[in-house]
């Protein structure tokens, strides 16, 4: 739950985890706490930054810095913390997640806002406590063996392995647990952060340890997020995660409430959008209010808007239908579950391999278009219109692109095309070259069959997803189904919904070695959203496929990988299930999302349908949180509302 000529990325890197947790933990420890709302003079309670006190009887429920909750008991090989062993996860990835450069799009026209908004929410509610990549403590490294002789391997890796560090163990001993460094609540943490220290830096005014002399606005020089060096000393700025091309210039990273805001341009854009929205609301408030009152009213509305868009647009677009809301329930613990954070919310198959946008050709000077091309952006000028296609590898940790392409066209472009189908296939931009920098001499590495020639090392998000489940003690696929009240699957056919779990008698395959035969992944039939067959050589094969048939059944490959259905990793089994009609998910993933988002709703005292402060704000100042994502985009960019879809979570028909 996180960014195309093949499949371009959350970002719904729906749960990509990057460095920054250690610095965030230190920042939280040093926080100068103050009781919510003290001295504000507001007619409503101000919720804490870190989630504490949301539940009055259990002040730590949902608070940052606490262990994830669990739906099922942790499953470790020794009962305490040793990872369960299984097939090599890159070996699994090459046989299960490998999309063979074939795009398969969403068949309900859910737009790329599905994964971009999903990642924005993810970075509001979850961040595992992780060791630093550069100097992991003893015992943390569990690197993935890379086998260049695997017949299904097409990428080279000069490192000889895929880096992987285990999450830090939560304090306290006993069975190994993991810590969530952010608040579990949908509370716009990604915009404001969870500590006074970060928030003070983000607000206009001095950074002197006294929030009382800050202005009501968020710092937005030129309408974009502040850089780490915006206040002069990048070393004194809040910690931000950097990777890829940003590693060489960390002082230019944008600063936001969450440390991952620079991860990709889609995420950076939505972070910028809601910082602008905060300032827009401030500017509509009466001059007689104090700076703190204006700030807290704007924050309250932004939190409610994030919740409203999530529950009224995002979740319905994904096909998640919750039971009727019956009001706040103080007996519901909203703490994020390990199963949701580690398995259920990882929907990386949805992430498109590129972001495409179009605008009037006059928007960008010729020199800017040339600069785009030099860094790998595909530029097409057609009369008075220009189209930009930003491959995922160019979108990673490249915040300078956001002001260069401008916020309006970028946000409009995210809603202009369907995201990929949520299934077992993951784009090679994530499955093989995540955050990697192209080798010299190959600046235009878009996607497709030439991609392996552009990179010399491998990072595989799909493989990491599987191993992270073992790291966190997530039960096997069938045991996790049981934990969510679902019947276990007794065959591989039952997992995938296919009619067979045997390899076909096919002269193109090596008998008895089908699982290692590259031909096993061939696509034999492609279909569009109307069920019409598409020729593999047609242009529509890159842009319009919503269903595809391979030479071998997924069930047959799973059987050859695992042997027994009871040994299937939870993540692998989950993404292999057929969708429940009208949704983007199989049974297990849908159950995980439904349970967690219901808890985040029912266990949140400040949920928009429960909080009377929002009624006060509407009556006193005429400001309403009930606004669609399209409304927010139009009010904060130069894109007219009429140029956006009524519901931007659905792409226009092709």
Automatic annotation (TrEMBL):
GO terms for biological process: response to oxidative stress. Keywords: Glycoprotein, Secreted, Signal. One of its GO terms (cellular component) is extracellular region. Residues 27-62 are annotated as: Disordered. The keyword Glycoprotein applies. InterPro entries: Haem_peroxidase_animal, Haem_peroxidase_sf, Haem_peroxidase_sf_animal. It is found in: Secreted. This is Peroxidase. It comes from Dactylosporangium sucinum. The lineage of its organism: Bacteria, Bacillati, Actinomycetota, Actinomycetes, Micromonosporales.
């Amino acid at each position: 739950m996180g960014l195309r000529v093949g499949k371009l990325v959350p970002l719904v890197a729906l749960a990509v985890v990057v460095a920054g947790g250690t610095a965030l933990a230190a920042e939280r420890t040093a926080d100068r706490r103050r009781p919510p709302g003290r001295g504000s003079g507001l007619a409503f309670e101000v919720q804490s930054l870190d989630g504490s006190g949301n539940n009055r009887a259990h002040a730590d429920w949902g608070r940052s810095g606490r262990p994830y909750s669990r739906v099922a008991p942790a499953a470790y090989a020794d009962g305490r913390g040793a990872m369960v062993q299984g097939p090599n996860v890159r070996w699994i990835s090459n046989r299960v997640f490998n999309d063979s450069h074939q795009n398969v799009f969403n068949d309900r026209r859910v737009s790329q806002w599905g994964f971009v908004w999903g990642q924005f929410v993810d970075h509001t509610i979850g961040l595992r406590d992780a060791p630093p990549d550069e100097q992991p403590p003893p015992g943390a490294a569990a690197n993935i063996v890379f086998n260049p002789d695997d017949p299904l391997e097409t990428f080279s890796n000069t490192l000889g392995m895929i880096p992987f560090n285990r999450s830090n163990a939560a304090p306290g001993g006993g069975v190994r647990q993991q810590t969530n460094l952010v608040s579990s609540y949908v509370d716009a943490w990604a915009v404001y952060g969870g500590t006074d220290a970060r928030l003070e830096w983000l607000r206009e005014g001095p950074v002197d340890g006294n929030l009382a002399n800050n202005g009501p606005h968020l710092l937005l020089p030129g309408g974009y997020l502040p850089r780490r060096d915006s206040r002069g000393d990048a070393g004194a700025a809040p910690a931000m995660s950097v990777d890829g091309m940003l590693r060489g210039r960390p002082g230019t990273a944008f600063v936001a409430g969450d440390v991952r805001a620079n991860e990709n341009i889609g995420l950076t854009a939505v972070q910028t959008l809601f910082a602008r929205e905060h300032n827009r609301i401030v500017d509509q408030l009466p001059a007689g209010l104090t700076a703190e009152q204006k700030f807290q009213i704007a924050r309250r509305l932004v939190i409610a808007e994030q919740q409203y868009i999530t529950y009224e647009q995002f979740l319905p677009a994904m096909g998640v239908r919750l039971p009727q809301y019956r009001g706040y329930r103080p007996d519901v613990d909203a703490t994020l579950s390990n199963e949701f954070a580690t398995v259920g919310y990882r929907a990386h198959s949805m992430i498109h391999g590129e972001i495409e946008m179009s605008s009037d050709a006059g928007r960008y000077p010729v020199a800017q278009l040339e600069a785009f091309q030099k860094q790998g952006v595909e530029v097409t000028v057609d009369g008075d219109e220009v189209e930009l296609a930003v491959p995922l590898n160019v979108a990673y940790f490249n915040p300078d692109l956001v002001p260069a392409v401008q916020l309006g066209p970028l946000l409009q472009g995210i809603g202009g095309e369907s995201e990929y189908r949520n299934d077992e296939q993951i784009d090679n931009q994530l499955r093989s070259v995540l955050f990697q920098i192209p080798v010299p001499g190959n600046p235009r590495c878009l996607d497709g069959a030439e991609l392996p020639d552009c990179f010399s090392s491998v990072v595989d998000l799909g493989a990491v997803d599987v191993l992270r489940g073992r790291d966190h003690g997530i039960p096997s696929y069938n045991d996790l189904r049981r934990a969510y009240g679902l019947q276990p699957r007794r065959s591989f056919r039952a997992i995938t919904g296919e009619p067979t779990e045997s390899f076909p008698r096919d002269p193109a395959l090596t008998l008895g070695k089908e699982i290692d035969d590259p031909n096993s992944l061939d696509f034999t039939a492609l279909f569009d959203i109307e069920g019409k067959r598409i020729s593999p050589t047609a242009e529509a094969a890159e842009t319009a496929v919503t269903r595809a048939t391979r030479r071998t059944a997924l069930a047959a490959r799973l059987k050859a990988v695992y042997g027994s259905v009871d040994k299937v990793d939870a993540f692998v089994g989950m993404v292999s299930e057929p969708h429940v009609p009208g949704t983007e998910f199989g049974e297990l993933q849908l159950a995980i999302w439904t349970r967690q988002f219901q808890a985040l709703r029912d266990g949140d005292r400040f949920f928009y349908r429960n909080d009377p402060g929002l009624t006060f704000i509407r009556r006193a100042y005429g400001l309403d949180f009930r606004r669609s994502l399209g409304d927010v985009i139009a009010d904060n960019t130069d894109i007219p509302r009429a140029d956006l879809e009524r519901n931007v979570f659905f792409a226009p028909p092709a």
